[in-house]
Amino acid sequence: MDTKKYIDSHRERFFNELFSLLRIPSISALPEHRKDMQLCAERWRDLLLEAGADRAEVMPTSASPVVFAEKIVDRSFPTVLVYAHYDVMPVEPLELWHTEPFEPVVKDGKLWARGADDDKGQGFIQLKAFEIAVKEGLLRCNVKFLIEGGEEIGSPGVEAFCKEHLDLLKCDVILVSDTSMVGLDTPSITTGLRGLAYWEIEVTGPNRDLHSGIFGGTVANPINELCKMLAGVVDENGHITLPHFYDKVETVSAQERAMLGAVPYDEEKYKAAIDVEALSGEVGYSPLERTAIRPTFDICGIWGGYTGEGAKTVLPSKAYAKVSCRLVPHQNHEEISKMFIDYIYSVAPRSVKVKVSPMHGGESYVCPIDLPAYRAAEKGYELAFGKRPLAVRRGGSIPIIATFEKVLGVKSVLMGFGLESDATHSPNENFLIEMYEKGIIAVVEFYNQFGH
Amino acid sequence: MDTKKYIDSHRERFFNELFSLLRIPSISALPEHRKDMQLCAERWRDLLLEAGADRAEVMPTSASPVVFAEKIVDRSFPTVLVYAHYDVMPVEPLELWHTEPFEPVVKDGKLWARGADDDKGQGFIQLKAFEIAVKEGLLRCNVKFLIEGGEEIGSPGVEAFCKEHLDLLKCDVILVSDTSMVGLDTPSITTGLRGLAYWEIEVTGPNRDLHSGIFGGTVANPINELCKMLAGVVDENGHITLPHFYDKVETVSAQERAMLGAVPYDEEKYKAAIDVEALSGEVGYSPLERTAIRPTFDICGIWGGYTGEGAKTVLPSKAYAKVSCRLVPHQNHEEISKMFIDYIYSVAPRSVKVKVSPMHGGESYVCPIDLPAYRAAEKGYELAFGKRPLAVRRGGSIPIIATFEKVLGVKSVLMGFGLESDATHSPNENFLIEMYEKGIIAVVEFYNQFGH
């Protein structure tokens, strides 16, 4: 079996299929795209059937539908559940895109589109590896697919769906392509994911925008107060000040910190790639440790008052922010959520009204490297990239992975093929075509190894 | 002479004339309204000629044109220069207006429109008082008009215009209707105005929006940093922390503080009107003192990152804020501007790029109450409102008034007829028709007294 040859001889069809997914603006955060969610789920169903699934169907949840598919080779064989998501992030700011976000373009060895990597491109690697494994008769396991439509907004409805369909989703391991490697020449498998907590804050001062000359000085300004409250969350050493925030944070072993320290990392190149003069963060941890094994606090968005051209003096009525924490083992996102809400209410002055709404959250996740499926994945990377992959914890969050562990009792192996330069969640998202092809080779080899 | 009778018999024409000004969206902050500025200036010119000016013309400046007009009764008489502005504030947020901002409506004894008070309505009081004084042969002074189109954005071009036309603008006192009274039953003349300094801040982190999971913790978040820098400007006692900020602040005499203390003020009503539970501000000063004789720091607008619906995790590239200080005698707005810029640059971490752009500014102003023109104004209020007006310092800023004093060497008397409920700079700006009529009576009486 030569996977590369198969890819070469089906190159155009593969691209056309992937493009058909990328052209659907399945933005889960925006309700006006509800119809696109349905369309995208149906397209996935059709592609799964064409790839060799015995059955595939679009199934409702309380939120966007999920796509379920399966290929049962033999009931006595172990079962792999492939998880991916068909939803994508919003595309603003649109003016920074060099191409249309939902009109995929192949250029400079890359595929450019919203979702090119996250997660339509990576999910498609799984789909095509499955097709090849089926067509080439490699499968010594059963394969199920669960493709959901709300990963970017916290997978609403998916936990309940899992609980309702425990039998349908029964499996031995979950396979996910939704993470990044350290670099094209440094294959790696993500063995840890950070958790997430997310809130929206609304601060109300006076009941209308006021003249800042007439009222300024006596009436609290909601933007001033919001900035003060948010500035207090992180101290000058980069520590988060919420009481008990670090109580449950795992103390990572010296051995694991050494492994992270071995990851090739060039600070000058890292800074140059994002054009910053200096890095930032918590005192006592290396830059990579700060993104991998330590929790963070980021203001994802803020707005209020006059934001047009020129200078308008105004004491505004409202100010808003969207804020999030990345969490690490064993922080519980619901406990952290409550801590933050308590903190904000405790520091909010009486002169403004403050409302904190928790949005989606999720637990962190750790994958043991002695799992048979992990070993099979390692073999896949070795074949595709010519090197044994590093096992590294990374900073991103896929909250549903922790939910799978809790509800289905099954570990996930994160066979991700993204790169940091893919600009996921940003304008000009892209995916290296070399990575896409090597990804398919690695997953086919996973199937070849798994079940032996 | 009965001014009231004159107003009554010309009521409809007066309204139609004022409406013709209010219908022009002369928003100085927005470049797309440049043509409206010209139209509004031309309308003012025509109305001034119709009201009795010997000459009136639209004259260019480096920014919006000004309207100059004059009525020379006798070269040996003293000369009054009436100042007003034909530009208005932006109207956002539009959804909060109950009527169209540029389609004036009379309802509940009030006139509703952007500019109904500030400053088309108040400027119109001056225009009609002038017309009556001319028609009734009351003028024992010469009258000049300078109507500008950039007051809301710091009067660009007007200082240079004054310097170029010193002879044309020669006068003995300047009369301005662009301030508020304490209340309809508490006539007052503003004798002090705060100054203003205004800046826009741009904070740049990474060169693009980043995935907050992959980069968060190690790459500085520009919104976090902006909030921290701004939160540091005011301490927990409401004091501004910029070094030397208070060095030149006038220590107001116990006598003047006592006068401010005598202004009728009901804190519960004040809070209820704007729906806040508690007031805020600098320790050691009463609420009215905080708005009148103390400087402030307000964030007028802030924006950055994801501000759409739902929860998007992002480490944004940019964050912005528009911030301003109200200043008091004898703070110099250019010195204060430099202090703020120095402060921000001194606290900005190397992990972000920070750019602070000073926008418009202006000095504070104090009017002596023994000025003959002030005495004439007092008489005008007494006739119109039946009570001697209080002399009070107020919190607003009209930077050009201090410029007039510096460039023309002439004091201004602020015959203002607004009320705090007029919602200037806010949605649903309005002007009490009773106030408008009493204002005309007061200014006609000013002319009757002045020159005696």
UniProtKB/TrEMBL annotation, chains A, B:
One of its GO terms (molecular function) is metal ion binding. InterPro entries: Cyt/Met_Dipeptidase (IPR051458), Peptidase_M20 (IPR002933), Peptidase_M20_dimer (IPR011650). GO terms for biological process: proteolysis. The keyword Metal-binding applies. Keywords: Hydrolase, Metal-binding, Protease. Residues 191-349 form the Peptidase M20 dimerisation domain. It comes from the Bacteria. PANTHER family: BETA-ALA-HIS DIPEPTIDASE, SUCCINYL-DIAMINOPIMELATE DESUCCINYLASE. NCBIfam families: PRK08201.1, PRK09104.1. This is Peptidase M20 dimerisation domain-containing protein. It comes from Barnesiella intestinihominis YIT 11860.
